[in-house]
Amino acid sequence: MLVRVCSLSDLEDKKPKKFSLNNIEVVVVKVGDRVFVMDAYCPHKGGNMEYGDVNGYRIKCHLHGYEYNMETGELVYNPYGKSDGWYFSPNLKIYKVEVKGKDIFVEV
C-alpha cells in the first residue's frame, strides 16, 4: 500500500526526519534531488536514525557509529571490525519511495 509521508518542503537537505505511518516509524532523508526512507531505528541496537549523520548516500547511527547505505540498506561500516555477538548488525530496512509532485509516498 502506498502511503503519503510528507511534502518535500518538510525536509532539509541531509537532515533525517522521523514520521509515523500506520504504526510504522520511518526516517526520511533528502539528499539533493533524491529521497530515502528507512526504518527509524538502527538495526544494531535501536538508535534513533533521526539523529544520524548523513554523508553522501550513507547514514551513520549516532549511538555506535555503524553506517548504512541508504540506497540498499547494506551495512557498509562497522567501527569495531567484529561481527559476532553484540557487534552483529543486520542491514537497515529501506522502503520504496515515490515522489509525486511535491509529496513523498512510501510502500508499506
From TrEMBL:
**Naturally occurring in which organism (per UniProt):** Saccharolobus shibatae (strain ATCC 51178 / DSM 5389 / JCM 8931 / NBRC 15437 / B12)
Query: Per its record, how is this protein called by name?
Result: Ferredoxin, 2Fe-2S
List the Pfam families: Rieske
Record-annotated Rieske domain positions: 3-106
Known cofactor(s) = [2Fe-2S] cluster
Q: Which GO terms describe its molecular function?
A: 2 iron, 2 sulfur cluster binding
> Lineage of the native species?
Archaea, Thermoproteota, Thermoprotei, Sulfolobales, Sulfolobaceae
